[in-house]
Amino acid sequence: MLPEEGKHSLYVFSKFMSSQVKDKLSKDLLEFVNAEETQKKLDIRKTQFVDVEYEKDYVKALNIKKHPLFVLLNKEGIVLQTNDINQVLNYVHEK
After folding, report:
1. Considering all CA atoms of the chain, what is the largest pairwise distance in Å, rounded to the nearest integer?
2. CA–CA separation, 81 vs 61, rounded Å?
């Protein structure tokens, strides 16, 4: 699950989302991940949605209580864990 040195991964843990909501979030995340500023500062190589209904181990390990949960990882582990996508965006701007 951990990316290689100098790279990041972004996981979105959630319960079932309607296709419309998931498509919108996917589009927004793709724009964010591919933005020049994001690539310069974080180099996110993987973005993945994880359905917590099927991945119960993550719910326990990450203490997931609210959805969606955004988890940004680097080689050392969790860099940011939040339910607010704006905190993910702000993290990039603060780097």
Report:
1. 35
2. 12
Positive or negative torsion for Cα 23, 18, 62, 2: negative
What's the rounded Cα separation, in Å, for the pair 57 and 70? Answer: 16
Are the C-beta atoms of 9 and 44 separated by less than 8 Å? yes
pLDDT tens for residues 34-85?
888 888 888 888 999 999 988 889 889 999 999 899 999 999 999 999 999 8
Distance CA 5, CA 29 (A): 22
- C-alpha to C-alpha distance for 26 and 31, rounded to whole angstroms: 9
Tokens standing for residue 33: 């991940």
SS3 18: coil
| pLDDT at residue 75 in the model | 93
pLDDT value of position 16: 80
Domains of the chain with bracketed CATH: 8-94 (3.40.30.10)
